[in-house]
Amino acid sequence: MNTNVDRLAMISVVGEVSHPKVGGSVYRVGQDGTAHVVPGTGGITYNVR
Fold it and tell me: Domain span at residue 43?
């Protein structure tokens, strides 16, 4: 079986589980005028340049 383990991104995340906090509006308006709700995610990627 072939795998791609050597090509996977190594990401570090830190956080806590909490209720969503809404400041202003939860919607982002796209270029075409449609509203989108986008989750906030992030992390530090160690092995990708």
Answer: 25-49
